[in-house]
Each structure stands twice: as C-alpha cells, then as structure tokens.
Amino acid sequence: MLWQAARNLGYDTDLLQRVEQDDGRLTEQAVDEMLHLKMANALLDYEPPQTLVIVGGDGKDSNWATSFPGHAERALKRGWNVEVWSWRRQLTGRYDALCRAYLG
Fold this sequence. Notes:
single chain, two-stranded parallel ribbon, two-stranded antiparallel ribbon, globular, alpha+beta
C-alpha cells in the first residue's frame, strides 16, 4: 500500500476522508489545517535557524482562520528563514507584504 510504503520511508502521513457537504458534494476537510498544525508543531519543536519551505501560493484563510502566510509570519518572527515556491499567478500578495515587512 502506498501510504504504508511512505511511512516505512519515514514520512509522516495522514490520510483524511472526504466529507459530504449540505449540497451533496464530497469535499476535502481540514487538509490545510492539518498542514498548518504540523507547521506550528515544527516551529515549537525546532530552534532557529531553520527553513520553512511552503510550496504553493495560496493565502486564503481556512475555515478556522489559519493560513500559510500566517505561519510564514510566525516562522519569521521566531528567526526562521522562509522560502515560498509558487507560480507567480498563484502567489498571493500576502507574501509580498511579508517580504516588505521583514526584508525592508
């Protein structure tokens, strides 16, 4: 099984289920929030200097008001380096604001 093979290689995997919305559509639930939690745990568990790498430019807040740019800012405040890898058209302006605030 793919997931067990990944675990055997040392990857931390979480398999989440799709949930049915009120309109009958099946959608993902809490995927971004799970990633945000793992990012927050890394910020708590490891001392800087470290590098947080975010692959994707999404800057939207989740249903529970967490976001990738929010965690990038937390990392910067704690002395971490942050790299964001994204396509320009996907990249939210929230990352530009962080660059201006932290790089001058």
